[in-house]
Amino acid sequence: MAEFYANLLGLRIVREDWFVIADDDPDGLRLGFGDGPIDYQPPRWPDPNYPQQMHLDITVDDLDAAEQRVVQLGASKLQDKDTFRTYADPAGHPFCLYRSTAESPTGRSGQIARVVIDCFSPRALADFYADLLDMPNRELNTSERVVITRTDGRLPALAFQHAQFPAPRWPDPAYPQQVHLDLRVPAADEPSLQSARALADSLGAIELKPGPHHHVYADPAAHPFCL
């Protein structure tokens, strides 16, 4: 899985005790891949009984060339729309490819433009993450889909789309999380972490598991995330 996404996104494996891929930006987005429980239930998009819960929207300069590459790497095509195409990665997680705009080409094989989170109420969950992550701008704001961005325009954006499905019940493998966010506080010290925990609590998150170095929470739609 790490090799698949590293090839798709032009990243490299930077950690192998549990696999992490990244570029050379120390503050950039990283993707981590860990072994799940033996009775893990993979998504079967679009079946709501086996939900995706989150997926990546990836921009590429050439859709046809990107499709050929991801299929060669082991992806399966799920649908083809006018503006984007949807695939399942080798483990069954859906992701979408979009053509990058002429004004902002990716400059590499692919770039994560949005992390998309399924939920019942997109506006309510967008409010939670906008306050938690200081992402006040709304690129799109409808009852079915909301996209929030940072003031500096740094990617990825977060998108929230309406869906009805069995919510994750971490750590129950019968209701798996599929994907989750690891959120780093601005400074790796105890006061900053405690401040972030207090903010998450005030916004409606529920702590699921405290730890010496990270804490597991559920957002108001029950998606786990770590601080």
Number of helices: 4
Tell me the strand percentage band. 25-35%
Count of DSSP E strands? 15
What is the radius of gyration? 17 Å
Estimate percent helicity.
Answer: 10-25%
Envelope shape: globular
Structural class: alpha+beta
SSE string, helices as H and strands as E: HEEEEHEEEEHEEEEHEEE
**Arithmetic mean of pLDDT:** 91
Which strands sit side by side, in order, in the main sheet? 5-6-7-4-8-11-10-9
Low-confidence stretches: none
Query: How far is the N terminus from the C terminus?
Result: 24 Å
Features:
227 residues, four-stranded mixed beta sheet, 31% strand, globular, alpha+beta, 19% helix, 4 helices
Structure, described:
By secondary structure, the protein is an alpha+beta fold. 19% of the residues lie in helices and 31% in strands. The chain has four helices and 15 strands. Strands 5-6-7-4-8-11-10-9 form an eight-stranded mixed sheet, with helices on one face. A four-stranded mixed sheet has the order 12-15-14-13, with no helix packed on it. It has a three-stranded antiparallel sheet with strand order 1-2-3, with helices on one face. The longest helix has 13 residues. The two termini are 24 Å apart.
